[in-house]
Amino acid sequence: MANWIGGDQKLPQGRLILVSYGIVLGIILLLLGFWKLQIVQSGHYSDLAEKNRVRSIPIIAPRGKILDRNGRVIVDNYPSFSILLLRDDPAQIQKDLPQITAGLNITPEDLKQQLEEAKIEPKFQPIIVKPEATDADLAFVESHRVDLPELELMMVQRRKYPPNDFLAHVIGYVGEVSPQQLDQQAGDRYKPGDIVGKAGLEREYNDTLTGTDGMRRVIVNSVGKPVRTLDDTEPIPGKPIQLTIDYNLQAVAEQELAGKVGAMIALDPRTGEILAMTSQPSFDPNDFSVRIPSKEWRVLNDDPNKPMLDRAIQAQLAPGSVFKILESAAMLESGVPPPDFHVFCPGYAVFYGTVRHDWDPKGHGEVGLHKAIVHSCDVFFYNVGQRLGIDRIAYYAKAFGLGKRTGIDLPGEEPGLVPSSEWVERVYHHKWYPGSTISVAIGQGATEVTPIQLLRTVSGIAMGGVFYQPHLLKDFSPVKVMRFPLSENTVQQVTDGMYGVVNEGGTGIFAYNILKQAKLQDVEFCGKTGTAQTISAKGLLRLSAAERHHFGYNTWFVGFAPKRNPEIAVAVLVQDTALEAGGAAAPLAARFIKAYYEQKQGQPIQELEAAKPAPKVRAATTQVPKAVPQGQ
Amino acid sequence: MTERSHGFEFDWWLLTIVMAICLVGLLEIYSSTHGSALHGMQWKQLTWIGIGIGGMLVLSRIDYNAILDQSPLLYLVGLAALLLVLAVGHTRFGARRWIVVGGVVLQVSELAKLIIIIVLARYFSEVRTERLTLADLAKIGLLIGVPAGLILLQPDLGTALVLVPVAIIGAFLAGINWRHAVAVLALGALVAVVGWNGHFLKPYQKQRLATFVHPEESPRGAGYQILQSEIAVGSGGFWGKGFGKGSQNQLGFVPVRYSDFILAALAEEQGFFGVLICMLLYLALLLRLVDNAQKAKDRAGMYLVMGVAAILAFHVVVNAGMVIGYMPVTGIPLPFMSYGGSVTIFGFLALGLVMNVRTKRFVN
Question: Which residues 185-224 in chain A show a CB within 8 A of chain B?
Answer without folding.
Answer: 219-223
